Amino acid sequence: xxxxxxxxxxxxxxxxxxxxxxxxxxxxxxxxxxxxxxxxxxxxxxxxxxxxx
Length: 53
Fold this sequence. Notes:
By secondary structure, the chain is of the alpha+beta class. Helices cover 21% and strands 13% of the residues.
């Protein structure tokens, strides 16, 4: 099992739903790095368009 984080309140839990607010939880870990990443080009383009450093 991996730790998960609530989208709305930010509490960490192992459950799919937050025990305090009932919101959806997501994985706080970034995706694994791969040199053969087929979508890296598109992610960098979107990041550049959004103006995120």
